[in-house]
Amino acid sequence: MQLKQAEAVANLSAPIDGIDEDRDLFQVAVEQFAIAADVLGLDDDMREILSHCQRELIVNFPVEMDDGSVDVFTGYRVQHNSGPGPTKGGIRYHQSVTLSEVKALAMWMTWKCAVVGLPYGGAKGGVQVNPKLLSQAELQNLTRRYTTEIQPFIGPNQDIPAPDVNTNPQIMAWLMDTYSMNIGYSVPGVTTGKPIVLGGSEGRSEATGRGCVFTIENTARVLGLDLAKARTVVQGFGNAGSVAARLMAELGSPVVAVSDSRGGVYNPDGLDLTGVNAHKLRTGTVVGFSEAESITNEEVLVLPTEVLIPAALENQITADNAGMIQAQVIAEAANGPTTPEADHILYDRGIFVIPDILANAGGVTVSYFEWVQALQAFPWTEHEVNERLRQIMNRSFEAVYGTSTNYAVHMRTAALVRAIDRVAEFTRLRGIYP
Ligand code: GLU
Q1: 173 CB under 6 A from ligand 1?
Q2: Distance between CA 212 and CA 309 in Å, rounded?
């Protein structure tokens, strides 16, 4: 790794040139890449290759709705780089999905897989839809037709989808079944995050939150922070956020606030998470939980706390609120929650950020375990899964933290530097064909 320390330090303190507040998410991803590429001294040809996505598929497809009418939806599947192996990444269903967002998320998947050393390149998919407005039958129709549209692009040795925002094991089961029916035999390795009876892995549904908490434990150790006394705030109470909240509480941390897309709840003495979960199950939201004060999603991020876990969507911590954040540690369970401008502000304020491509890599790591189990038709126990996950997360944290201290760069740049170096090595060794 050819790190240039002086440049790295200069990069952290220099203002970012040409920042356009309205730039899209892929631009943000390329900007982060460029900062790390400078630190690495990456040559121009390699920069050019890695700052593009290899394949971008757009599909517009009809779905039959319950009332007999037909709606046309737009979906995407993007593969950023297949140098390290088959591409891997989730599929999200959200009304605000765009091609640029999916491209950024695909690029981040490449770096994420490289940071934890998985034999995958990165990919991502998405459909522009609010799934909360669909019936189960419509959701199934949409999933099966989208799968058929992207079928030539995916496969167990080619590109392996998984759950992401608003997708779940049932949706992965429909995806796996559709692919299998089209091909004529069962292919459990085409996706991960499946229900356990269909070849899903023990521990997969909790893996993103669990991996995130492993990185927080590592951070607490290096910072000398006692987690049993440290408060936690979680923005986003979905698959990653709710599990991270529970595991932080199991470590003794008072979880003082949680939120979802409708708002948040705050109790400075610590929330009763069993009660919050029951309330969410009953009403569909954490808002209105009786033993807490109601707060807005913006307020959640700036509450007094030691640990802040953004576990919702991208672009939450920006130049507008980074100066007001009170946390000592930010663990990015979501993808892309912090903008590059906010990164500078947080670094200058001494806030320790565990970047998304490390903090939320537990999900894809256990997806990899699931894929290995599917290819070998040999299931592992939950204990084996969690222990191997712990080893990989601890080792990856150590490596990234070492790079960050050795070269005086913040954790995001350190993680990117390691990831880009690895992917560039694959690309160089494989060469260009034809
Ligand atoms: N959607 C998750 C992520 O962003 C998991 C991806 C996977 O398991 O392939 O990391």
Answers
A1: no
A2: 9
Ligand 1: nearest atom to the Cα of 192: 8
Q: Ligand 1 in contact with 364 (CB < 6 A)? A: yes
Work out whether the CA dihedral 219, 399, 348, 345 comes out positive or negative.
Answer: negative
Contact of 325 with 317, CB cutoff 8 Å: yes
Atom index in ligand 1 nearest the CA of residue 367 equals 8
Q: Looking at domain 2-193, what is its CATH homologous superfamily?
A: Leucine Dehydrogenase, chain A, domain 1 (3.40.50.10860)
How far apart CA 280 and CA 302 sit, in angstroms, is 23
Which tens digit of pLDDT belongs to each residue from 109-160? 999 999 999 999 999 999 999 999 999 999 999 999 999 999 999 999 999 9
What digits encode the pLDDT tens for the residues 297-316? 999 999 999 999 999 999 99
CA of residue 124 to ligand 1 center, whole Å: 8
Under CATH, which number does the domain 207-359 receive? Answer: 3.40.50.720
- Indicate where the chain has its CATH 3.40.50.720 domain(s): 207-359
Exactly one of 124, 194, 229, 280 is catalytic; name it: 124
The ranges of the chain annotated as CATH 3.40.50.10860 are 2-193
Confidence class for position 430, pLDDT limits 50, 70, 90: very high
